Automatic annotation (TrEMBL):
Pathway it works in: Porphyrin-containing compound metabolism; protoporphyrin-IX biosynthesis; 5-aminolevulinate from L-glutamyl-tRNA(Glu): step 2/2
Keywords: Cytoplasm, Isomerase, Porphyrin biosynthesis, Pyridoxal phosphate
Protein name as catalogued: Glutamate-1-semialdehyde 2,1-aminomutase
UniProt-listed InterPro entries: 4pyrrol_synth_GluAld_NH2Trfase, Aminotrans_3, Aminotrans_3_PPA_site, PyrdxlP-dep_Trfase, PyrdxlP-dep_Trfase_major, PyrdxlP-dep_Trfase_small
The keyword Isomerase is annotated on this UniProt entry: yes
Subunit comment: Homodimer.
Localization terms from the record: Cytoplasm
Gene that encodes the chain: hemL
Length: 427
């Protein structure tokens, strides 16, 4: 038995499924998860001392590359000054000012420790601000694991959702309406019928949790127009896309200003840090100013803030996103050509440092579309790449991430590996 197998068995005896977040268990691709020993730049090493070119990037945070020396130094320095105070610090103001400067829709914000907390708090805030209960989310968008968001679509247009997880009372999801991503007609009909009852609409402004799915311009425009007309809060969940698809997130690319924005992943630079923010009049409803309660023992943790601040500094250096996009483009051009040469049905898409690989002729436009892609082909691709030293997320429904540490040479190496894998798949 190799060390990954030994550790997986040991982990399963003490941690349910052997993992602390389900996708890590390789359930949808099969096989043994790689236990990671260390990471640096574009690489991770597993417990068998095998090295992988990593396109998971801790699911997005590692945009400047793993263990960037400047980030590590900032963390070390902060840690020497104490790990947590439970009191306000100057660094929290600095990072809040920095985020507000970068994110078009953010006038004020509050720091939390996970994306789940950010979206849960933003929804509570939207409900408190509007005095309404109902919320709209879209099928295939993930917003963390708070109760009212673990929901699947009901059977008809205006039937509210059913829990998608055991342990969530139906009462907790009965105010959540699940609509289809990119379906403008359905959105219009819903607002026409119950617009005055809707507290907020939350979406991933480029979806990254059903693989990468791009919104149409009509969909984005309708979202902003309808929420404005009906007094509903528009929440952009930019936990994944913020500082990832572009410095100013999806909202800077859409030219749309959401009322609230949730952020996470990149802003912590690999440490537990997230945030929600937006219009100052809405943010004023948060405790201690307003009646919407929200709190956190470790919120604004000084070590996490130090990692985040240094990461934000690095990504604002000239040319950072141009280079990231170029590298993503280089990788996908290579993959597209290699798949075509092997006769594999394949397509891809990218926005900034985030990309999607699809075993389908066209990139999907909705969750239903995505379910029609060839997940068996993905499994073979995934294991073929992993066995040859290239790591992607262990599910066909995940987006992939480029970092500044992925050099053109490493990308060429990745493409050469993909060429072998596609050829094997075709044989
Ligand atoms: C990752 C993610 C979350 C949840 O963040 P956690 O830090 O894992 O709780 C929420 N929304 C989106 C869009 C995400 O990608």
């Amino acid at each position: 038995m190799n060390r990954n197998e030994q550790l997986f068995n040991r982990a399963k005896a003490i941690i349910p499924g052997g993992v602390n977040s389900p996708v890590r268990a390789f359930g949808s691709v099969g096989g043994i998860p790689r236990f990671i020993k260390k990471a640096e730049g574009a690489y991770v090493w597993d417990e068998n001392d095998l090295r992988y070119i990593d396109y998971v990037g801790s699911w997005g945070p590692a945009i400047v590359g793993h263990a960037h020396p400047e980030v590590i130094e900032a963390v070390r320095e902060a840690a020497l000054g104490g790990l947590s105070f439970g009191a306000p610090t100057e660094a929290e103001i600095v990072i809040a000012e920095e985020i507000a400067k970068i994110m078009p829709g953010v006038e004020q914000l509050r720091l939390v420790s996970s994306g789940t907390e950010a979206t849960m708090s933003a929804i509570r805030l939207a409900r408190g601000f509007t005095g309404r209960d109902k919320i709209i989310k879209f099928e295939g968008c993930y917003h963390g694991h708070s109760d009212s968001l673990l929901v699947k679509a009901g059977s008809g247009l205006l039937t509210f959702g059913n829990p998608s997880s055991a342990g969530v009372p139906a009462d907790f999801t009965k105010h959540t309406l699940v609509l289809s991503y990119n379906d403008v007609t359905q959105l219009e009909e819903t607002f026409a019928q119950i617009g005055a009852e809707i507290a907020c609409v939350i979406l991933e402004p480029f979806a990254g949790n059903m693989n990468l799915v791009r919104p149409s311009e009509a969909f984005i425009t309708a979202l902003r127009t309808l929420t404005e007309q009906h007094g509903a809060v528009l929440i952009y969940d930019e936990v994944m896309t913020g500082f990832r698809v572009a410095l100013g997130g999806a909202q800077s690319l859409h030219g749309i200003t959401p009322d609230l924005t949730t952020m996470g992943k990149v802003i912590g630079g690999g440490m537990p840090l997230a945030a929600f923010g937006g219009r100052a009049d809405i943010m004023a409803c948060i405790s201690p100013l307003g009646g919407v309660y929200q709190a956190g023992t470790l919120s604004g943790n000084p070590v996490a803030v130090a990692a985040g601040l240094k990461t934000l500094e690095i990504i604002q250096r000239p040319g950072f996103y141009e280079q990231l996009s170029e590298r993503t483009g280089q990788l996908l051009a290579g993959f597209n050509a290699a798949a075509a040469d092997a006769g594999i049905t394949f397509s891809s898409d990218s926005i900034g440092g985030m990309f999607g690989l699809y075993f389908a002729a066209q990139p999907p436009q909705s969750y239903a579309d995505m379910t029609r892609s060839d997940t068996d082909a993905f499994k073979r691709f995934f294991h073929g790449m992993l066995n040859r030293g290239v790591a992607f997320g262990p599910s066909a429904y995940e987006a992939c991430f480029m970092s500044a540490a992925h050099t053109p040479e490493l990308i060429e190496e990745t493409v050469a590996v993909a060429r072998d894998v596609f050829a094997d798949m075709a044989a």
